[in-house]
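Bug #77: duplicate submission created two jobs. Keeping one. Sequence:
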Amino acid sequence: MTTPVAGEGGVDAYARLAELGLTLPTVVPPLAAYVPAVQSGNYVYVSGQLPMVEGKLPQTGKVGAEVSTEEAAGLAKICALNALAAIESLVGLGRLVKIVKVTGFVASAPGFTGQPAVINGASNLFGEVLGEQGRHARSAVGVAELPLGAPVEVEVIAEVA
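Kept job's structure:
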């Protein structure tokens, strides 16, 4: 059984974003030799998204040291919005069938083990905006460093019609 797209009884992502008072940001330009998202068949692979806001990181540092779990979860939410923007720019959210997989990377201070709580920021955003279509498989991984000193990075695989 396939999940319906917005026009076929699924969640209208645009309406939900508006109801939640959220606006899709401009797609974050790549920091190196890659593209923000690429489509292969019925899947869109979104490159790792940092919590960039208007071209800048609102916060840097390690989660569990300079950045709290709650602050990092908020940053993961920004990463998720940036991922939705990348999907929108490539194929449009109206074609989104399902968020299939989310991989979250958390720049972690030694001993920090709360990576799942951090990446909940992204997972919860996908659920709030997309309902059942936003439920996904997930990995939450602690890492030593992320680009530009970002506390969190999120990549996404999405199915599209």
